Amino acid sequence: MNQEVLSARGLVVTLAGRRAIDGLDLSVPAGSVYALLGGNGAGKTTTLNALLGFVAPAAGSVQVAGVDLRRNAAAARRHLAYLPENVALYPYLSGIENLQYFCALGGVPLADAAARALLDQAGLQAASHAARVATYSKGMRQKVGLAIAHAKRAKAMLLDEPTSGLDPGAANDFAQRVRAAADTGMAVLMATHDLFNAKQVADCIGIMKEGRLVAQFDTHTVSHDELERAYLAHTRAAPLERAA
Description:
Elements: E1 4-15, E2 18-29, E3 33-38, H1 44-52, E4 59-64, E5 67-68, H2 73-77, E6 80-83, H3 95-105, H4 112-122, H5 138-152, E7 156-160, H6 168-183, E8 187-191, H7 195-201, E9 204-209, E10 212-218, H8 224-235
Parallel strand pairs: 3-8, 3-9, 6-7, 7-8
Antiparallel strand pairs: 1-2, 1-4, 4-5, 9-10
Helix pairs in contact: 3-4, 3-5, 4-5, 5-6, 6-7
């Protein structure tokens, strides 16, 4: 059995006087992808923020690679890579320069050849490595983000709506790159609305509603139709997003 890398136990997060996360138990082992589904306001983004230490839990615990986040947030974050919906890169630097810059911030100098190898691994075409990021599509920027995660040698990666706004081909390609990252031993937690890609790339899928994990499925044993019915049953009455 793979070692647990990301875990939340009895996690409670209170925002604006309400429980945005309400007693969440979640586990992501090494080498696996966990897709977190749910309607707007379900608590997906708040869950990622809690695992990153951006919001303080009112109760419960979070561990990253065996490090308690509340006791040593800096040490826990060293094991994490985070890709938001829109990866923030410097538009007038190239893909190589952005990768080298963010690695330098983390104290990891990166030569051109190593940077190119990481961008290749992330799926960015060689012809685009030296082009300014201002010319990149969203999918290309996401691949630079993946390269940064690989360069950091992160044990876990958190993704927030990574395929939002991508065309089907780009979304499928990115999903395969995420799967490849997990196959190297990384634990991946992905918040998404994309049922198709979740079923395609994840090992486990959880559905959140009102801050609670209300259903969980092994993707190898659940059909797409069963997953879609469960998702719709839990999300049709979901409230509008307020603080997730």
